[in-house]
């Protein structure tokens, strides 16, 4: 898409990115396991400079104030895939299975989803901080599963290798 960034600069050179939103939905895994998928041509060695530039592309800074969140995730691209798909169909008429969207375009549309989509309501429930019993029940019902630390995941993997 014209006008949106399609490269990062690191080590004095530009590296073209694969800007398809589907790739960037899997960014946390790809940066650790399949860096090449993030790039359209040559893949740089993962250095702190490259990682910083990729992080900025993945989560570009915004001038619009967004409030201060607790830091706890309220969206999981994989777990919430059906809600995200339905929200885009409802709000924009976009079929994400066939859509050709740049990551930044996808993020802008996602961030602007209207309140009448279930995805936005789920985000509101997950981030609720009050004491209303009904809202707390919704928060618990829609809560994301807790992620294991790297050490905990390694222990689970070792257990599964031995006894799985």
What does this structure look like?
With 164 residues, the protein is mostly helical. The protein has helices at 21-25, 27-33, 48-58, 81-92, 103-111, 118-126, 133-141, 150-163; strands spanning 7-10, 13-16. The radius of gyration is 18 Å and the shape is globular. The model has no long low-confidence stretch (mean pLDDT 91).
- Secondary structure tally, helices: 8
Mean pLDDT: 91
**Beta strands, count:** 2
Helices and strands: which structural class?
mainly alpha
Helix content: 40-55%
What is the structure about, briefly put?
With 164 residues, this protein is mainly alpha-helical. Helices cover 46% and strands 5% of the residues.
Which terms would index this structure?
2 strands; 46% helix; globular; 164 residues; mainly alpha
Strand and helix layout:
Layout: E1 7-10, E2 13-16, H1 21-25, H2 27-33, H3 48-58, H4 81-92, H5 103-111, H6 118-126, H7 133-141, H8 150-163
Antiparallel strand pairs: 1-2
Helix pairs in contact: 6-7
